[in-house]
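ok new one. same drill as before - C-alpha cells go in, u give me an amino acid for every spot. 360 of them this time. try not to just spam alanines like last time pls lmao
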C-alpha cells in the first residue's frame, strides 16, 4: 500500500495551529529551508504486530508541513492524538505480511527568535483549551509538591512571568547537568529528579523540568518533541545532525508570554554544549555563554518539531500510555500476548530515520 495524503486545514481535529499531513503552498521567503525526512521500520519477527511512527503536525511561523506519504504491506493509516493533535502513522500486521512500514514527510523550517527587549505586539492570551493544556499536570509533570516548592524558591522576588521564566531557565542551566549514561532523551520524571536531588539527565528530563516548574507558578509552558535534521550553522558541532538521524531525537521547551506569544527556550542544549562541545567546556566559556544567551528566546531550526503531546495513548495499543511520542513504537506478539519492542534500540527494532535538504 502506498498512500499520498493531502488533507486541507479545514479537516483539523484539534488546535488550529496543528495542520495534519497537509499539502500547502508556502512562499519561499528568505530563511526558509526545505527537508525530506524518511522513517522506515521493520519488526524483528513476523506475526501479529503493531507499529506507531511519529508524523509532524506542527505548523507555525517557523515550520510548515508540506506533504506526508506512506507505504506498508500491512493495514496502515494516519491518525491524530485527540488532545494534542500529534500525528501518528498506525500500521497493523496480521502475520501474513512483511512487517515493514515507511513514512516520508516534506517540510520547511526557518530560524526562530522572539525579541523580548521590544515592545509587546503579539497575542495577549491563549484560548481556554490551549491554556488548560499548557498549565495542566501530566503523569510525569506534576505541578504541586516538590515541583511547586522548588519553583517558588527559584522565582522568589521575580515579579513578572518573564522574570520567573528566566529565573527557572538560569537555575536549570546552573544546577543540572547532561548525563551521557541516560538512555535516549531521558524519561522526564521531574518529581523523582527533585526528590532524589539527582539533576542529571538529557533533554527529556531537563527541558521537562523547565516546563513543569513554569506551569507550577502559573506560566503556560510545553515540551515540543522532535528531531535534529541538519548540522548547526552557528558553530556548535554538538547541536546538529544530518543524514542518518536515527538517534537524533531532541525535545525543546517554550512558554507563553502575554504580548509576545510562545517563547522558545532550550536549557538542555546549553548543558549539552557544556558536556560535548570541544571535549567539555566550563559555564564561563564564551561558547557556552553565547549558547546560554541565545537559547532563551530563540531556536536554530535545524530541527523538526513533531508534536506537543504527553500521556499518549497510541491507537490500538494495549500496553498503556507512553509519556511522550518522539520515537517509533511497536508491539509484537509472543506466546499470545502483545510485547512492547524497545524504542531506544533501533538496531534490534530495525528502524532507520534519514533526512536530506532539498535545495532546488
Amino acid at each position: 500500500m502506498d498512500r499520498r495524503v493531502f488533507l486541507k486545514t479545514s479537516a483539523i481535529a484539534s488546535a488550529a495551529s496543528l495542520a495534519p499531513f497537509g499539502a500547502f503552498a508556502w512562499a519561499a521567503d528568505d530563511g526558509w529551508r526545505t527537508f525530506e525526512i524518511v522513517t522506515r521500520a521493520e519488526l524483528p519477527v513476523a506475526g501479529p504486530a503493531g507499529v506507531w511512527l511519529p508524523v509532524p503536525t506542527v505548523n507555525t511561523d517557523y515550520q510548515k508541513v508540506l506533504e506526508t506519504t506512506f507505504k506498508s504491506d500491512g493495514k496502515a493509516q494516519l491518525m491524530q492524538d485527540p488532545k494534542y493533535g500529534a500525528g501518528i502513522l498506525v500500521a497493523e500486521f496480521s502475520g501474513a505480511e512483511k512487517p515493514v512500514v515507511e513514512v516520508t514527510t516534506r517540510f520547511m523550517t526557518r530560524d526562530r527568535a522572539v525579541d523580548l527587549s521590544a515592545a509587546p505586539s503579539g497575542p495577549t492570551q491563549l484560548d481556554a483549551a490551549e491554556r488548560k493544556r499548557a498549565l495542566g499536570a501530566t503523569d510525569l509533570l506534576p505541578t504541586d509538591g516538590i515541583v511547586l516548592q522548588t519553583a517558588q524558591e527559584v522565582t522568589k522576588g521575580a515579579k513578572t512571568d518573564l522574570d520567573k521564566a528566566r529565573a527557572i531557565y538560569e537555575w536549570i542551566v546552573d544546577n543540572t547537568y547532561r548525563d551521557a549514561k541516560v538512555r535516549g532523551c531521558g524519561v522526564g520524571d521531574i518529581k523523582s529528579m527533585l526528590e532524589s536531588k539527582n539533576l542529571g539527565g538529557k533533554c527529556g528530563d531537563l527541558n521537562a523540568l523547565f516546563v513543569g516548574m513554569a506551569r507550577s507558578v502559573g506560566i503556560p509552558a510545553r515540551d515540543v518533541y522532535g528531531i535534529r535534521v541538519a548540522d548547526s550553522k552557528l558553530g556548535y558541532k554538538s547541536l546538529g545532525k544530518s543524514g542518518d538521524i536515527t538517534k537524533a531525537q531532541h525535545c525543546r521547551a517554550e512558554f507563553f508570554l502575554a504580548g509576545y506569544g510562545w517563547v522558545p527556550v532550550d536549557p538542555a542544549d546549553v548543558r549539552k554544549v557544556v558536556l560535548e562541545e570541544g571535549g567539555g567546556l566550563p559555564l564561563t566559556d564564551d561558547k557556552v555563554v553565547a549558547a546560554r544567551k541565545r537559547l532563551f528566546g530563540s531556536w536554530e531550526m535545524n530541527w523538526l518539531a513533531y508534536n506537543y503531546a504527553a500521556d499518549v495513548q497510541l491507537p490500538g495499543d494495549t500496553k498503556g500510555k507512553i509519556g511522550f511520542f518522539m520515537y517509533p513504537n511497536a508491539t509484537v506478539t509472543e506466546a499470545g500476548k502483545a510485547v512492547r519492542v524497545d524504542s531506544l534500540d533501533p538496531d534490534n527494532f530495525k528502524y532507520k530515520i534519514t533526512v536530506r535538504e532539498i535545495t532546488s
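Residues 161-175 form the longest helix (15 residues). and btw The two ends are 29 Å apart (CA to CA).
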